[in-house]
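Give me structure tokens for this 152-residue protein.
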Amino acid sequence: MRKAIYALLGTIAGLGGLLGLKANLAPADTTAQAAAPPPAAAVEPSADAAKQPAGQTAGQPAKTATGKESTNPYESVQVKVTVSGKKITKVEIAKFAPKDAQSKSIGGGALPKLQQATLAANSADVDTVSGATFTTKSYKESLQSALDQAGL
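Here you go.
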């Protein structure tokens, strides 16, 4: 009986170690593009204006705007959007600066979901990603700032 208990405890400890290792080895997300973001709240004509993506009204050039950087206790997030007419056609993470590996893992998993939800909702009114409340809040603040700058 005693051996079974030790075997069970060893198995649990091993699984815990593997799960902890996996969390630390999560691949760096492509959303961590912190290279020289433009100044906050910058609006510029999009280079993609001539392409006219789906949903764009003819004669209305696409606008790109970068929201203000939003900081929480775990990271800083800055969002860049491209708007054609009244439609959000592209959402990028201009800056993602996590303060530690766990924040990098959580934010790296949540930001792509938030980007997709934004495109689907065509607004900043997206649901909070479970387990990433602070990331979601900062993302939404920066996104709303960018949308305000873009006039949407």
